[in-house]
Structure formats: C-alpha cells, structure tokens
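Q: I'm writing up a methods section and want to include an example of the input and output format. Could you take the sequence below and give the corresponding predicted structure tokens, formatted cleanly so I can copy it straight into the document?
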Amino acid sequence: MKRSQLFIKTQKQAPADEVSKNAQLLIRAGFVHKVMAGVYAYTPLGIRVLENIKQIVREEMNSIAGAELIMTALQRPDTWQETGRWSDDAVDVWFKTKLNDGKEVGLAWSHEEAIVEMMKQHISSYKDLPQSVYQFQTKFRNELRSKSGIMRGREFVMKDMYSVHTSQEDMDGYYDKVIGAYKRIFDKLGIGDKTFVTFASGGAFTKFSHEFQTICDAGEDTLYVNSEQTIAVNEEVLDDATAELGIDKATLKPVISAEVGNIFKFGTEKSEKMGFNFTDKDGSQKPLYLASYGVGITRVMGVIAEMMSDDKGLVWHTNIAPFSVYLASIGEVSEHADKLYSDLCGAGIEVLYDDRDVRPGEKFTDAELMGIPYRLVISERNMESNSLELTNRADGNTEMIPQTEIVNILLKKTNS
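A: Here is the clean output for your methods example:
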C-alpha cells in the first residue's frame, strides 16, 4: 500500500488524558483512535495487526478441530436468567438496553449461556459429540474504570471457544489440547517466553481455572513464579494452590503480569441448569460437559505494544506487523521506487511505500514509530552504487544490499 493512500496520521503527542503506554504509542503511530475512556476505534493499520493476530489464533483453533462461527452480541434475558447471571448483583458489567417494543436486551460480555442455548438446537445424541466451536466477537463490559488502554476496554475483541463432551475424561483430554494450542499461539505472537499457564480462581464451579499470564509491568495481576519458571500461581489463589501442589511459597517470587487468555471447565453445571442433555449409548439422558477458552485479541495487541517498544516507538514481531517492509524513497527516484515497490509486492512481500513528498527525517521517524520490521531506503546516492539501505527495526542494524538481491533477501527475512 502507498502511504499517500493510507487512512492514518501519525502524531508527535498522544492525547493528554491517555495514561497507558500502549494506547499512547498506538494512537501516535496511527493504529487506534480514542473515542472515550476504554473505547477505541481501529484504523487500517490497527486492523492489519488484529487480523494477523486473529489468523494465528484461527489456525491453532482449527488444528484442534475447532469450527468457526459468529454469534450475536444482543442477548435475551431469559437465556441468562436460567443460570442466575442476568441480574446486576450477579454480573456487574452488563450493558443493558431496550428494544422499541420495550423488551430488555443485553450486550454480551460473554457467550457461555448463549452457546449452550444455541447448541441445544444442534446436539441431541452421543453421536453428535464432541463439538468445539469458536468465534471472534466484540464484547461489551461496563467496567468501573478503564485506564489500561486497549488492555482493558469497555468494548473489545475476544476469541472465545466452547467445547462440549460426553464425559469428564473427554473434556479433560481436549482441555489439554487447548493448552498446547495456546502455548503455540503465544510463541508465534513473540511473547511465549514471557507467558505462563497459571493457576487461578475457578469461581463457584471448580477449585482452579487456568489463566495465561504475560509478565508485563503494565499488568494488573501479581503472579508468583518459581526460579525454573515452570510453575506460576495467581496471587488470589496462592495459599490454596501451593498447598495442593506441595510447593513452598518461599521458593516463588512475585512478578507483575497481564492476563491474555483464560480456560475454564464448567463440567455439567450449566447444562444441568439450562436443561442441556444428550442421549447416551444406553438410551439414558445425561447432561453435557462444557469448557470455555478465551484469548483477548485486542488485549494481546495492547500487551505486545507495552512489551515490544522503545523510545522511538513500536517494534512489531514479523508475524503480526501490519507490513513487513517500510519502503522510503528519498530524492528524485520515484520511477525506480515505483518499480521496486511493484517487484516486492509481486513477490508477496507486504510493503508500505512512503511515496509522500516530505523530508527524509519525517519518513524515518514514522517508520520507527510504526514499528514495521524492516525499513528499505532507495535514494539517488545508493542508486549510484546499485544498492539499497536495509535497516532492522528490532536491533537497528543497517546493511547495504545489492538491488538484484533485495527481493530474495527480504523473502528470507520476512518468512523466517
């Protein structure tokens, strides 16, 4: 894409009322637009990052037999009344409104009850099981405070998946597969080495759930991790978890972390409350086992922006960057730059071509602020030596590459 055609504008300063690092950087670099506290719009640059994150998640969910669907954000009260989670006393983050006929509806903060209601129409026999479905959906939560940028929004995008099973054993086996898939997701996102499967509160249904927590100074949780980084426990269940695991609390050290995913076994609790049964092989009616699995897509983007940045701006991992290459033309080289842009695009390399008539320093500053992995400069001076200047955003290393080799070299670098 040509920069002159891209619907963004970079800024030297973030809004004065924005305190979070991730939102400050993303606003300045042109990835998001702040509407109000906890509510952000995403520009074409931001959408490209979100779609890259979603595709990594999608591929891993598909690899464990997840089937993608999309549900509605509008929720009927009776669906949630069956489990006692419609009242504001039980769930205090509902956004509720009314239709023109006076009927009350809610904007989904989760879809657990909703998926059970939907599955009741599709599953009746053991022959229909197991099933696993997931979606990328906008969620709405009426948070009391929202000061962490896109890491805690009142409106945000989540991947939520739900699996149903005939038995505890089958549910447990699939649950472990999801843990493996989540580990691969966070590795591909570039934060796997800082992300832990964490023992967390299981609420009313089970003693523990599992969170995926990423060490991040802007996080809101305290995680206790052992020196080998093989065990991580959320502070809220520290005493219970260490007692059950037989671990000396003194061997764990606290770190600040941000939750990027959560997986949870409901067992048969929701099925029993909502009358969700299946006919087993012996003809008897039994409740289904349900588990849910979430990844905060916009939240992950915010966490990555917090972790992968420096004093110049963002530093995206190549797997999720909006473009792989920032092509900057300097001087009277537009004809050569256009040809190079065409060659790179033809080879399947995603390029943002800065074709604007602005000073070189402005192009370089924007390239660094946006965090695109490689900056490629074509100028009159390097054209004389038939070479191009290639700079790695992550380490700042610059090298001169022969023009005849640039396509192959970039293919190797951006696909590694």
